[in-house]
Design a protein that fits this description.
Elements: H1 12-25, E1 29-32, E2 48-51, E3 58-62, E4 67-70, H2 76-84, E5 88-89, H3 110-116, H4 123-126, E6 133-140, E7 145-149, H5 161-165, E8 173-181, E9 183-184, E10 188-195, H6 199-210, E11 218-222, E12 228-235, H7 237-250, H8 263-273, E13 283-287, H9 293-302, E14 306-310, E15 315-319, H10 324-333, E16 337-342, H11 345-350, H12 359-372
Parallel strand pairs: 1-2
Antiparallel strand pairs: 3-4, 4-8, 5-9, 6-7, 6-8, 10-12, 11-12, 13-15, 13-16, 14-15
Helix pairs in contact: 6-9, 9-10
């Protein structure tokens, strides 16, 4: 009878051995950290869990150089607290998937954030998770440890495997070390709101704001009886005040800008937890060009979906209890792609979590996976 107990290596040598034995035995390994995203993708009952929480802790943090090296099993909450103590931040603003699955925050690990390519509202102005990963250590499906990137911001040595690994969802390598770029936290943050705009007008307002000299950090739209279009501006106090005035002038044709005060931070927190959306409905993450976000949102709303727009319209979160084909068609017609984040087991078994690729891209992806994992150790069937 096959051993189904979890594997929990404590060091890189044990990890290499575990992967080598799995490859030899024809086993499949499901990489897991805090399990905050375990509900994404198909169930994998035949795969053995490879628990990487033993790879936890900070290796080196150099605040003046804005560089943090740590192990992937380190809880995201600890990483945030550490950099905040130095008035710094993870600028891509990752969030914990726990609340999306009606679970408490606190389980996500920094390795899971990188593996899933998790970026929050600030990705619009600060870049994605992959843009802040400077270097890594990992073990491939060949049971070979390797290093990619480095520990300095200006590093052009070799292939950029950091961007390839980020967002690969544990299908290429098991991470053992990460080096991240951090940035100074803003001294002042302000939120400004437009109210009453329909999706098309909101998208136009967000586009105009992002193209202005107000240097907007985030732009999002929440529909409802009283629709709200939100903008975040941050930096030094005097600069923030001046840019808020400039933004009001820029967007005057869309109506007056309102200052929600402390409610502004509550709004952005809701974008991290997606609390305005019904927790019981399947959840889709749809990426499109910002100019097409309103089209996708309107199409899905007509089909019965609840939704939010982030990234100035480039990211649509949709809670939709209908056919997967409806969501995928709406995304495809807008030139985008839709990822199933949450859903009942029947939906997850019937609809692939990741948007189906074109045949040529699918073949290329398969070749890349086989280069890292020729025995298919990480091919659990989840995706």
């Amino acid at each position: 009878m096959a051993d189904t107990s979890d594997l929990r290596p404590a060091n890189e040598a044990e990890l290499c051995e575990a992967i080598a034995q799995a490859a030899s035995a024809g086993e499949r390994l499901a990489i897991r950290g805090g399990a905050s995203k375990a509900g994404v993708g198909r169930p994998t009952p035949d795969a053995r869990t490879l628990d990487l929480r033993g790879f936890s802790g900070v290796i080196d943090y150099d605040p003046p150089e804005l560089v943090l090296t740590l192990r992937p099993g380190t809880p995201l909450a600890e990483v945030r607290a550490l950099v905040a103590s130095e008035n710094q931040m993870l600028a891509f603003e990752p969030f914990d998937h726990g609340p999306i699955f009606d679970q408490p925050e606190g389980a996500a690990t920094i390795g899971g954030v990188v593996a899933a390519g998790v970026s929050g509202s600030q990705r619009l102005s600060m870049g994605a998770a992959r843009d802040h990963l400077l270097g890594l250590r990992a073990v491939s499906g060949r049971a070979e440890a390797f290093v990619a990137g480095g520990k300095v911001v200006k590093n052009v040595t070799g292939y950029d495997l950091c961007k390839l690994v980020t967002g690969s969802w544990g299908r290429l390598v098991a991470l053992t070390e990460l080096t991240l770029k951090v940035l100074p936290a803003p001294r002042t943050t302000a939120t400004r709101l437009l109210t009453g705009l329909d999706p098309a007008r909101a998208t136009a307002a967000m586009a105009q704001a992002m193209g202005s000299q107000a240097d907007v950090a985030c732009a999002a739209h929440l529909p409802g009886p009283e629709p709200v279009t939100a903008f975040r501006i941050q930096g030094f106090s005097a600069s923030v005040a001046a840019r808020c005035e400039a933004l009001a002038h820029t967007l005057s044709a869309f109506g007056p800008l309102h200052d929600p005060g402390a409610e502004g931070e509550i709004l952005w927190a809701s974008m991290r937890t997606l609390s305005p959306l019904p927790i019981e409905a399947p959840l889709w993450r749809i990426n499109v060009a910002p100019s097409r976000g309103a089209v996708v949102a309107t199409t899905l709303e007509r089909a019965g979906a609840a939704w939010l727009m982030d990234w100035a319209g480039g990211l649509v979160w949709a809670a939709f209890d209908g056919e997967a084909a409806t969501v995928r068609a709406a995304a495809g017609q807008a030139g985008g792609h839709a990822q199933l984040i949450r859903g009942p087991e029947a939906l997850r078994l019937g609809a692939p979590a990741l948007h189906p690729l074109a045949p040529a891209a699918q073949a290329l992806e398969a070749r890349v996976r086989r280069a890292f994992d020729p025995a298919g150790v990480f091919e659990t069937g989840r995706f």
